[in-house]
Amino acid sequence: LFTYSSSNYYCNHHEFFGGSLRSPPVLLLANQLLLLLRRSLEASVPRVASLIPSNFQELQEVVTSARVAMQLRTRRNQNEEDIPLEQEEDGKSIQQQDYGIALAKLKLIQRNVTWIQENGVCIDNIIAGFSDMPLAGRGAKARRTIHKGDLIAPMPLLHVRHEEEFFTYQMYHTSNGGFVMDKNDQVSKQLLYNYCFGDADISLLLCPTTNGILVNHCSDTCDSPNAEVRWSNDTRTQKWLQKTTEEISREKSWVLSFDLVATRDIAKGEEIFIDYGEQWVNAWKAYEERMINQVRDESSKRQHSSSSASSDMFSACYYWEDGDVENDLDPDIPWQNFDDTTAIQNLGRDGSKFQQLNAEGEHRGSFWPCSILEKQISTSSTNTAPSHPENECTTYIVRIFPSRWHDISSWAKNDIPRILTNFPASSVKMFYKPYRSPMHSRDAFRHYVGIPSHIIPAHWKRTDATTSSEPIRTFRIGDRVAVKDKNSNSWRTGTLLLANDDSPMFILDDGDVILNSNIRQENVRWATSHLMQVVSKTHPFN
Prior knowledge:
The protein is an alpha+beta fold. The chain has helices at about 1-10, 15, 25-40, 45-50, 55-75, 95-105, 115-120, 235-240, 245-250, 280-300, 340-345, 410-415, and strands at about 85, 95, 125-130, 140, 150-160, 165-175, 180-190, 195-200, 205-210, 215, 225-230, 255-260, 275, 315-320, 350, 365-375, 395-400, 420-425, 430, 450, 480-485, 490-500, 505-510, 515, 525, 535. Helix 1 (about 1-10) packs across helix 5 (about 55-75) and helix 5 (about 55-75) crosses helix 6 (about 95-105).
């Protein structure tokens, strides 16, 4: 804030100060303030502190350089409207991004190409692509040939103190239109949990921040893993590996990194795999067994059901608006009185052009909600772009519905159905409704990727006394909690005023009584009294 405000002040009032800008008192004051700012930031955000100008002369250089950056940006974006942070006399404005460019040029060390080639780390060895493993989604493919022992990608890690931070809880609507969360009813874990590294013997979870997160597990479909994770040799990682997990959890910035290293030669285009570990494999096998039994039960139920379509999915059609749509439909047509055949005859328009790829291989539209009215089998395809062989002679009669991501169409304003015939089957897709896909179900697979046991520091592992299947509950100031009264053995609700890792915890009782005894954490839970005003459950599970 000071760097910005001081730049703003000196830039806008340089005429007022004139030659006195370089007078000893002004320079001394400016230099002391800059030093104070740097020192106040060094403890918490040292990388930011390193960018603060060292003295007033550097500050002036930043302002001058920012002015140049602003002028270059203005020439590039003549038609852009920027929100001014600092108004210049000529009506132009210096933006925050201009100061960022100026600071980078002044404070960051400029490296030449030779230095980068000798000391840099290549971070583009991985490209995202469809995995070779069935149903695995995306995977990590090698952009170029990678030799055994080569670094595939660095993986800086964000550390999370405990898996409880990933828990999701049942949500409810309230009578006043708000939402509440019942922390006594854990539903599942966030999807990000699947992409973090962990172990049953340590409390920390380590989440990668680069495209190394794309690497899949080598299962029965591949010969063996061709890569592994190792601790990085950088000074920061080696220093923090000596710390306890408690010390690491208190650190606000990233301190640990993995290196993803090739264990054999990997060809260009080959998929990269690692071993997720025994804990993950056992959890996956148990999940597969549950899913097989569930599918078997659901199949049995469907045999006695008249509908096979899932209520968790909806159909969408690849569509776009043309100018001729505006004048194509009569707004006064009495379509409400039509039967289906008459409605299709009068309102149906040819939709064969709505291909995902046109003849030039370009995308034009997007997916809009739609319903399939009828299946058509044609003897020849009128499509102008190639389609999948099994779909080229299959078309549909569909009804398009308004999309919330586009302007309201004329037919939607006039409440007229938008019906298209000869619609390509390849342009119809099924999508899950929000929070209804299998990955959002209560029994969705959730498990961390295993940290190789041989690289886990011994002092990180929990002892038998500290290992517990019961999750650590993280209470925060302001939480509605219930505390067990040791005298009456009943639960009293209140608001948490002060919390720390050790007892006692201070809790304000609803009767304005401060409970300040040695309250053990197992005698505190989240209160459910606030659910009395609940009117219904809401997503993700209703």
